[in-house]
Design goal:
seven-stranded mixed beta sheet, alpha+beta, about 170 residues
């Protein structure tokens, strides 16, 4: 597996993977209404690409997944998500970095893509002085994050897309 920084030229492929991941990997965890609703709060925050903290995982010559981390306060949501953006820089001495926008191409599910991206993001955040990370996990992502050492901090429901989408704010010391 090759992990590299995402670029603007990757955007069409990343958006396709995100849509396929939301549509395919949430089945069994969310109702069809919740999957549709989740699109309002999930997606790509292009600030991550600009900051150089968003990555692409390539496997077998294809983009197998994408994910990133952030030194900014926004915990989750894409460019289109309303009310979630907080571009303030975090203080590594007192605040956790954010793991953001983790998506696996369904064709590569259960092949270690998410785990590799997560480890890559954690190492990058730690290299910049962060001693902890937080993320907002979906029901489908929670098992991966739990195995990787994350603990639930709080559970919320985000209903900005219509049907309430259950999410878990999770954290981990690095």
């Amino acid at each position: 597996m090759n992990i590299r920084p995402a670029t603007e030229s990757d955007l069409p492929d990343l958006l396709q993977i995100m849509e396929a991941s939301i549509s395919g990997l949430q089945v069994g965890f969310l109702s069809p209404e919740q999957i549709a609703s989740s699109r309002a709060v999930m997606g790509l925050d292009r600030q991550l690409i600009e900051d150089g903290t968003y990555f692409v995982a390539e496997l077998d010559g294809a983009i197998a997944g994408c994910g990133g981390w952030s030194r900014r306060a926004t915990l989750y949501g894409g460019d289109h998500s309303t009310g979630l953006r907080e571009p303030r820089l975090l203080d590594p001495a007192s605040e956790p970095a954010r793991v953001r926008a983790m998506y696996t191409n369904p064709a590569f599910a259960r092949r270690g893509v998410g785990r590799a991206l997560l480890a890559h993001c954690e190492a990058a955040a730690q290299a910049e002085g962060f001693s902890a990370v937080e993320l907002m996990g979906t029901r489908a992502g929670e098992p991966l994050y739990a195995v990787a050492g994350y603990a639930v901090i709080e559970r919320i429901e985000d209903d900005r897309g219509g049907a309430p989408v259950p999410l878990a704010r999770m954290g981990k010391a690095l």
